[in-house]
Amino acid sequence: MTQRKIAVFVGSLRKESFNRKMAKALTSLAPESLKLEIIEIGGLPLYDQDLDDNPPAAWTEFRERVMKFDGVLFVTPEYNRSVPGVLKNAIDVGSRPYGKSVWDGKPGAVMTVSPGAIGGFGANHHLRQSLVFLNVPTMQQPEAYIGNAANLFDESGNLANDSIRGFITKFIHAFAVWVETNTSSRK
Ligand SMILES: Cc1cc2nc3c(=O)[nH]c(=O)nc-3n(C[C@H](O)[C@H](O)[C@H](O)COP(=O)(O)O)c2cc1C
Predict the structure, then answer these.
(1) In terms of pTM, does the model score above 0.85?
(2) Would you say the C-alpha torsion 93, 95, 100, 102 has a positive or negative sign?
(3) Tell me, what's the pLDDT at 123?
(4) How far is the CA of 186 from the centre of ligand 1 (A)?
(5) Do residues 62 and 90 make contact, with C-beta atoms less than 8 angstroms apart?
(6) Å from CA of 120 to ligand 1 middle
(7) Which residue's CA lies nearest to atom 6 of ligand 1?
(8) Nearest ligand 1 atom to alpha carbon 80
(9) Ligand 1, atom 31: nearest CA belongs to which residue?
(10) Which of 24, 62, 77, 141 has its CA 20 to 30 A from that of 51?
(11) Pocket of ligand 1 (CB under 6 A)
(12) Ligand 1 pocket test: which of 21, 24, 79, 81 has the largest number of ligand atoms within 8 Å of its C-beta?
């Protein structure tokens, strides 16, 4: 079995972020065939096309780092019915210079987590729109719009009940299959 390395991007910088807690839960429930690692995006300078010829070191390090991963997993809140700026910025930074996008062909998945009832549906699908253009084959099912986030974690930040634990396990196992299928067909 080849272990596939998955870069995880959390669309919130908040210390007590539900999405970061969820990313950690996904990491601990992942099968042996996946190794998840959170890539920090909060320190990336805002993308500016004028800097393409002389990019900030943080952009270059980010691009080189993400390039080495086999797949990408986005775990994000919804801000104003769309993708938080910090995550969109990371996606834009990784997409350039033109023709050298780090996203190209990497199998991906999206999970949105919100205290609200709609579970970040808007952000989930806005993000998918970018991923179509970036040629990230993105897992269709199971969809993951996780609402009611304030009740999903215990005081230590672990998933609070078997129902959500079961769904997260199902999601990450399905993603392992998705990564394997899409990796094999690429090579
Ligand atoms: C600027 C801003 C916009 C928001 N817009 C939405 C929204 O459109 N839909 C939603 O479900 N929650 C929205 N929220 C609430 C977030 O879902 C909530 O703050 C959530 O806890 C953020 O994710 P985190 O816990 O991972 O930081 C918004 C929060 C902020 C700060």
Answers:
(1) yes
(2) positive
(3) 98
(4) 36
(5) yes
(6) 8
(7) 79
(8) 8
(9) 79
(10) 77
(11) 12, 14, 17-19, 77-81, 114-116, 118, 120
(12) 79
3-state secondary structure of 23: helix
Q: Both tokens of residue 73?
A: 């997993």
pLDDT profile of the chain (187 residues), mean per 10 = 96 98 98 98 98 97 98 98 99 97 98 98 98 98 98 96 97 98 73
| d(CA 85, ligand 1 centre) in Å | 12
pLDDT at position 186: 58
Contact predicate 123/83, CB 8 Å = yes
Residue nearest to atom 23 of ligand 1 (CA): 77
| CA 95 – ligand 1 centroid, Å | 25
Which one, of 25, 55, 35, lies nearest residue 164 by Cα? 25
- pLDDT for res 1: 79
Task: Evaluate the CA torsion angle 105, 61, 24, 3 in order and state its sign.
Answer: positive
From residue 29, how far is each of 9, 26, 67, 93, 159 by CA, in Å?
Answer: 17, 5, 24, 30, 11
Tell how far the Cα of 180 is from the centroid of ligand 1, in angstroms. 33
| Tokens matching residue 36 | 């998840």
Tokens 């393409």 locate to: 52
Structure tokens, 62: 């980010």
